[in-house]
Write a structure and sequence with these properties.
3-stranded antiparallel β-sheet, alpha+beta
Length: about 60
């Protein structure tokens, strides 16, 4: 089973998403979005950006 994005309302009434691995562990969380649609768009942006992204090391 692949990981999944979950879109949810936060305590302030805004929307966020979290990315969960196939084992259920949360591996990423988002900033707050004004609407559920914007949070879903954020999920799609992460999917596009991560596709084929390189892993690099930095000093900080």
């Amino acid at each position: 089973m692949a990981g999944k994005f979950e879109v949810y309302p936060d305590r302030a009434g805004k929307f966020r998403f979290r990315l969960k691995a196939s084992n259920g562990q949360v591996v990423a969380t988002s900033e707050a979005y004004e609407s559920k649609t914007a949070a879903k768009d954020g999920c799609e942006a992460v999917q596009r950006a991560a596709n084929g992204a390189d892993v690099v090391e930095t000093d900080g």
